[in-house]
Amino acid sequence: MSAPGIDVDPRIDDRRKAIDAIDDQLLELINERLRLVMDVGRIKAEQGRQVLDSSRESRIFDRLLSRNRGPLDEKVLIHLFTQIMAASRQLQRPQRVSFLGPEATFTHIAAMNHFGPSVEYAPQPSIRDVFRDVEKGESHYGLVPVENSIEGAVNHTLDLFFESELKICAERYLQISHDLLSRAGGLKAIRTVYSHPQALAQCRMWLQKYLPDAVLKECNSTARAAQKAAEIEGAAAVASREAAQMYQLAVVASRIEDVARNTTRFLVIGRDAVHRTGRDKTSMMFVTSHVPGALYKVLKPMSDAGLNMVKLESRPTRHENWSYFFFVDVEGHIEDAAVSETLEGMKKLCLYLKHLGSYPKASEG
Ligand SMILES: C=C(O[C@@H]1C=C(C(=O)O)C=C[C@H]1O)C(=O)O
After folding, report:
1. Whether residue 89 has its Cβ less than 6 Å from ligand 1
2. Cβ distance 266 to 110 under 8 Å?
3. CB 3.0-4.6 Å disulfide test: which of 200, 270, 275, 280 passes with 169?
């Protein structure tokens, strides 16, 4: 690129300065427009009105087209203002967060802790649906469980990262405590206990001791189990205290997990990358070649660069027997030269490597 005024015609130079000044004004005007749009959005929210007002938008187009004296082409005018109005509507819409539902799952509680009360929450029937909703732009973010301190990785979540282009935007820890919930409120009447397989596993000893004859039945989520307990005579659920409130169940016993300090780590997934904060984590997945020492060779650049690896997990690729995806978390951000250079170096040493995201490190709190 040439420096201004060196080999460019001065007449071009003059006009480029004027163009820059106009771009500055356009930028300021667009932001001023967006500030007004946000005011309109707040008023609409107060009145419970929807964001899109197609008749207002078509009146805007009619007015602008009738005022346009060119040389701006009409099609281009429509395209430009379509984009501006789409951005405006997006700003007015409260952020939508999809999570593994139904309501009152631990994922829902983690989502509410992370995003607070002013976003719209959208429960999804499966982790795959959470990914799909964010990929399609239906939601800004998704929240999925990724590992539990007792049960280990949530394999389904790890597997979905292979197919998805979404990035990890944040992590969130939640201390998990299970209660036994039922309509009846006593142990005697309970014949069936419903819950998510991980929750049943986490309370195995307690259930064996206090409900040795009960049939354990697996559900997709602890909240679904609470729904079942509310519907079925003689049924109980292992679920959160929040689920008891939501499904009007009595807490028969609380904190029934076999091991205290049961914590689940959740990931916030989204379409946009997150900038460096200085206290970050970077996640990646890779596949090594099927030769002795391959994993060691791929990991070596990390120790050479002094990067602190905080997690290593493997999953079968399912394309070929005994070949694995490795999931690695290191401290640092992809915007740190040490991290980006190390990833570039590792890419050359394995068959496939994907950066899954760099995001602020959360405390287990
Ligand atoms: C800002 C508004 O909300 C939306 C955005 C519009 C815009 O960007 O001009 C117009 C109509 C609505 O679809 C509004 O209703 O005025």
Report:
1. yes
2. yes
3. 270
